[in-house]
Design a protein that fits this description.
heterodimer, A: 116 residues, mainly beta, 4-stranded antiparallel beta sheet, globular, B: mainly beta, 5-stranded antiparallel beta sheet
Chain lengths: 116, 107
Amino acid sequence: DAGVTQSPTHLIKTRGQQVTLRCSPISGHKSVSWYQQVLGQGPQFIFQYYEKEERGRGNFPDRFSARQFPNYSSELNVNALLLGDSALYLCASSSGPLDYSNQPQHFGDGTRLSIL
Amino acid sequence: GIQVEQSPPDLILQEGANSTLRCNFSDSVNNLQWFHQNPWGQLINLFYIPSGTKQNGRLSATTVATERYSLLYISSSQTTDSGVYFCALREGGKLIFGQGTELSVKP
């Protein structure tokens, strides 16, 4: 079975632009979460979606938004890009919502976003 | 919120050596995961270990939730073990990660 897949793998944008990152969860998983990892730090939680509804939001500005589709895939959108948005963006899936499920999260390989 | 601290921050080993990585956390929780992030950035599940001990090949992990710590043991280290090791705990609907232990295994 395929793991969590993310696209694109690498992306270069300039300040002020908008970007959309995509994630497909493991088959059968209904929960998708997004994390941002800047160089030298651990991943930081951005969003969790379960059954197409937002279940949690981290401490990120409104420039960050996400959605989940009926097939449980997800998109993360970032508007008005800043230099500080340069990071590895990770998507994770699990079978149930993290606040109720005791199942582990599985991560994709990430999208490396560079802002010039 | 939950605080997660890992030690040591960096570790350099000769191939074949053993090591112990530690994760301390601020609340008594029952949902700890260990991850390995390889030099290419892939974050790989090692263990989901709310409590007790688990082993997978050369790696094993022990969590004592009541004393708020977990240990990851790496035996007979190999160069492919290099990378950053994270522990993470669940708080509500999110994982809280430690700052990681960066391991470098020299041939």
